[in-house]
Amino acid sequence: MYDKLLNSKNFFLIAGPCVVEDESLMMHTAETLKKTCNDRDITLIFKASYLKANRTSVTSFSGPGLQDGLKLLDKIKHEFQLPILTDVHESNEVQSVSQVADIIQIPAFLSRQTILIREAAKSGKIINIKKGQFMAPENMKAATEKVTAENNYKILVTERGTMFGYQNLIVDFRSFASLHSLRFPVVFDVTHSLQKPSINQISGGSPEYAPMMAKAALATGYVNGLFIETHPAPMDALSDSASMIQLGTLPDLLDQCIRVYQK
């Protein structure tokens, strides 16, 4: 799987809803994403979180939990023959997650958690480390070394924006060159970089800028993959409703990105 990501004809795509929702919605999203990507020769990794441990509000939906969430992700994996990415928040989740996920994600807020990263690395799975909103890209070298210390060199590094004042994020495009120098595939998290964290009791967002940001990132020549959260009806989504891309608009966004990537 890792070799396939390294040698993709096009950029690869990590996509899916923010959090695992009801089965019919998840299956429809996975089926649509697979067809969309197959038609464009894009390698797809389906993503969704079985549990979100860093919700803004205590009343925010966090997901179905480890057992039920992984069960549905496993069904998607086998029914659609799709690799799966999901994130872990606790070291004791890693063993269960590694039975389903092809890529284990370290969330941005946990990108300095040594014990968690090393436990995930021991699984032998691909490890995607999101750069913390509080970190300079150069700091990701130490994070990747926590994975390679376990003799695991299957690493992705993801840029998702840096805190800029209050309630906003900014993407410094020099970050892609810095991350590329680590010699691991670089991913741009399009939708999370457009969040407006903790507006009142939820996170806001500006998804209308997603096509522009995705194309600009790919144009740097340093980005290998895009991370895009998508949902059939974002405003009805149970998590990150203000920043996800409407599923029906994704084909056009990808077509625009392919034209940039292949120039």
**What structural class do helix, strand and pairing data support?**
alpha/beta
Beta-strand percent range: 15-25%
User: Could you report the average pLDDT, rounded to the nearest whole number?
Assistant: 93
Give me the number of helical elements.
9
- Helix % is 25-40%
Query: Which descriptor suits the 3D outline?
Result: globular
Could you give the count of β-strands? 13
Radius of gyration over alpha carbons?
17 Å
Strand numbers in spatial order across the main sheet:
1-2-3-4-5-6-9-12
- Could you state the order of secondary-structure elements as H and E? HEHEHEHEHEHEEEHEEEHEEH
Distance between the ends: 26 Å
- Spans of at least 5 consecutive residues whose pLDDT stays below 50 are none
Largest sheet: 8 strands, parallel, barrel
What would you note in describing this structure?
This protein is an alpha/beta fold and 263 residues long. It contains 9 helices and 13 strands. Helix content is 33%, strand content 20%. Helix 2 links the parallel strand 1 and strand 2. Helix 5 packs across helix 6 and helix 8 packs parallel to helix 9. The mean pLDDT is 93.
